[in-house]
Amino acid sequence: MASSKVGTTRFTPYSSRLTALLVLTFSVAVDDAAFLEVHNELADSGTEARRRYITAVTQHRMHQQGFRERVLDAYRNRCAICRLRHPELLEAAHILPDGHPNGDPIVPNGLSLCKLHHAAFDGNFLGIRPDYVIELRRDILDERDGTMLEYGIQAFHNHPLIIPRPPDLRPDPHRLDERYRLFRNSA
Prior knowledge:
Blueprint: E1 9-13, E2 22-26, H1 32-44, H2 47-50, H3 64-74, E3 90-94, E4 110-114, H4 115-122, E5 126-128, E6 134-136, H5 138-142, H6 147-152, H7 173-186
Antiparallel strand pairs: 1-2, 3-4, 5-6
């Protein structure tokens, strides 16, 4: 079992007051065979092995917390689809993703969605037309899978999206149109 772990850490403080943050850079190499061996061991062993941990490196978008606060504030802390008002269950969904040329972290490129509707939007289970109407994929509408699907998703087909009152905070129809075309092509 040859497991290699190489790590380097570099701290680079910025002098700017706006970005008075530390930048961390990590390089980690793990032998795939050793990683798979741990997974096989966990499946065959008792409680002690199942409580072992692995270290993972994640990237967080620097703007995400500010984007979330601005979007949820614009929507008065409620889901734009179901009106759920529990901020701990709400997320700021991007209409066009970060990597897209128009995927800016601005309120008109955001929607306040509960976790269920955010996942449904990102997974193209539902789309939002440029006229702010919610549309579901035909296969999702035809599916029978209990009350959660029926009342949590299907019930919102052809319903209007709840949008902010100030026009400058509403979802950008051009971004919605581009995202809606992706939704239609995924069906």
